[in-house]
Amino acid sequence: MVRPPAERPGTGVTPGSGGTPKPGAGPPGAGAVAGSGGAAPAGAGTGAAPPGGGAAAGSAGAPAITGGPAEAADQAGTRIMNGRALRRALRDRTEIGLLDVRPEGLFAEGHPLFAASFPLGRLEADVLDRLPRRSVPLVVYGDGDRDAAAAAGRLRSLGYCDVSLLDGGLAGWVAGGGELFRDVNAPSKAFGELVQATAGTPAIAAPDLRALLSGGADVVVVDARRYEEYHTMSIPTAASVPGAELVLRAGALAPDPATLVVVNCAGRTRSIIGTQSLINAGLPNRVVALRNGTIGWTLAGLELDHGQERRAPGVPQAAARRADRAAWDVARKAGVGRISGPALRSWLERGDRTIYRFDVRSPEEYAAGHRAGFRSAPGGQLVQETDWFAPVRGALVVLAGDGGRAAMTGSWLAQMGWEVAVLEEGGAGPAGEAVETGPWARAWPTPPEVPLAGPDQVDRWLRDGEAAVVDVGSSRRFLAGHVPGAAWALRSDRYRAARPEPPGRPERPARPGRLVLASEDGMLARFAAADAQAVPGTRVAVLAGGTAAWAASGRPLQSGPGEMLSPRIDVYRRPYEGTGVDPGAMQAYLDWEYGLVAQLARDGTHGFAVLT
What we know:
This protein is an alpha/beta fold. It folds into 4 domains: 31-53 and 66-184, Oxidized Rhodanese, domain 1 (3-Layer(aba) Sandwich), CATH 3.40.250.10; 191-315, Oxidized Rhodanese, domain 1, CATH 3.40.250.10; 322-436, Oxidized Rhodanese, domain 1 (3-Layer(aba) Sandwich), CATH 3.40.250; 452-564, Oxidized Rhodanese, domain 1. The protein is 34% helix and 14% strand. It contains 24 helices and 25 strands. Strands 1, 2, 3, 4, 5, 6 and 16 form a 7-stranded mixed β-sheet that branches. The chain has a 6-stranded parallel β-sheet with strand order 20-24-23-21-22-25. Helix 19 (475-480) links the parallel strand 21 (467-471) and strand 22 (487-488). Helix 9 crosses helix 12 and helix 12 (317-334) runs parallel beside helix 17. It is globular and about 75 Å long. It starts with 70 loop residues before the first strand and ends in a 9-residue tail after the last helix. 50% of the residues are buried.
């Protein structure tokens, strides 16, 4: 059990139930961190032993990452951290966040293993939920000095007080011997490959599975992805059982131990983790992963299903209790602890530690009732997207959920080097605890004061030729539907967003006197409007309520590309999502995944420890 801060004589999370904190290890915050200027601020270290024992990560014996050659300051006084110090902090699991502020498309071309994508143009949309502690040490880099410095300034304006720039940016990281990882969710994907290599997770090739299905063999296929992905495309006969649900529900789909259970995803990671979850939990059936998932199925020339709605049946209470016990047996081996509600409140009130709180149940269960302050993060996706949900390395992760789902999710996070505790009393909380309903909602900083205009006013301006609309939200959402005649631009491409007519277009009429900025719900556009006002001669307003309000007013949306004022690099097209993906891109993605274990060895910062 995790003790309240005032009572803690030692580390933090105790393994399983009934464990005892190790005396004398020092509380979280004992290690020094980047940007502290000497003495470490509270909350710098994890204070917990990594899975499998050993010295506490970030403990008092860890090298200080402050001052001297590790840090310097540029001429503007911004702190600079070099790559060597950053690597040491990551290895020690000292609490630190590495932020890549380039658009996601550029991020996916290459980044350090534990870098998290925080595009400059969307910074306000992401920071409060993903970086909950304002004093957390942050290191920022971008496509050059200008965007990194702009991001650092914006973070400081939002109250983040320990912000450094990465010395030399991404080029400096590479010059110092740092590895670059492609794609998104690289830590989880690399970990999945390490699990397969270490545990020997069994797999079946697509043609072999197809032969079994065609021959009427006793086979059950379970799809470990989100339901939406499954519904878009799936393996024939497969049922949707998202990753954290597998240990709870697989037995209901395959009650006969002689039934072969095949776990699939789109590529490799979630099928490997899902298969190994069932094996680790002791499912009596033979369990294998579908090698390379729906990508492998497609590359083998086989047809996928579309629009399927098969799900696992409900689980009796006795079966749920067995799943819970099996999951906790695994979680205890991985070093997952338990934390009480009062102890968690004490930690939160103290405020010297980054604490992520996730409810790992299904989105539907979360919406029906959840403990206040917990974010919806279905367990399979949380393990798959650790860089998105928990970008601060060395933070404490607290999970809520039942039926063993939190325990099994925690077992994987612990093997990835996180300090993990499962909240006692289940997902929605006991009587007397604050319980909320409804889906998770993004937290926004207080937006700047800018002129707002409702759909009626903007419509009149457009009909009278008095305004031009530029959408600064997601290009994917823009293509799906936008205000008719609107153009799209990256918010960080401030000049083009403020002056929508590209140069060299004399055939176009003179630019209207007013610029109207739009985004999905209007919030991001309000921050962008403050940027646009800095461009001389710009009269700016924001479409109040965004594109959603325009549609809600009964006005039509226009789909398709429209006018694109910036390159569409804000969104990375995943080769494992959707249909119509180029087979060459699919194969290149698989080839990259095959090489991740070797990359991990060269990188040396991962701290993963796979149970065997």
